[in-house]
Amino acid sequence: MTPRRLHWLALVTVLAGHPALAADAAGGLQAGPGEDIVAVACGACHTVDYIRMNSRFLTPDVWKAEVTKMRTAFGAPIDEDAAATILAYLAAHYAAPAKP
């Protein structure tokens, strides 16, 4: 198991073991595939309120840039599979239409 996967597993285990933390991290995200991964991965470093606040402005391409920034500039422990799930969820539930 890679260190990133081990870190991810540890984070999920901690949040799953503390329902109050998990509920706070979820913060009322829209239900859908990937919601749990978004709540844990994004909520580990900041409130998921940022997702709701920025959803009016961020297109799918900008969400992709944001997730990439979190991984590369800030070192978020998100592997390729989780990043793809997060992007699919954000594009489906919180993306502004792409500008023509």
Salient structural properties:
single chain, Cytochrome Bc1 Complex, Chain D, domain 2, 6 helices, 0% strand
Largest sheet, strands/sense/barrel: none
Broad CATH class: Mainly Alpha
CATH homologous superfamily label: Cytochrome c-like domain
Write down how many β-strands occur, each being a DSSP E stretch of 2 or more residues: 0
The sequence of SSEs as H and E is: HHHHHH
pLDDT under 50 segments (min length 5)? 17-26
The dominant shape is: globular
Helix/strand-derived class? Answer: mainly alpha
* CATH T-level fold name: Cytochrome Bc1 Complex, Chain D, domain 2
Count of spatially separate domains: 1
- Share of helical residues: 55-70%
Query: What's the oligomerization state?
Result: single chain
Q: What Rg, in angstroms, do the CA atoms define? A: 13 Å
Fraction of residues in β-strands: under 5%
Task: Provide mean pLDDT, rounded.
Answer: 82
In CATH, the architecture is Orthogonal Bundle
Count of DSSP H/I helices: 6
Terminal Cα separation, in Å?
43 Å
Written overview of the protein:
This protein has 100 residues and is mainly α. The chain has a single domain (3-93), classed as Cytochrome c-like domain (Cytochrome Bc1 Complex, Chain D, domain 2). The protein has helices spanning 3-17, 19-26, 35-43, 49-54, 60-72, 80-93. The longest helix is centred in the first third of the chain and has 15 residues, at 3-17. It is globular and about 40 Å long. The termini are far apart. The relative contact order is 0.18.
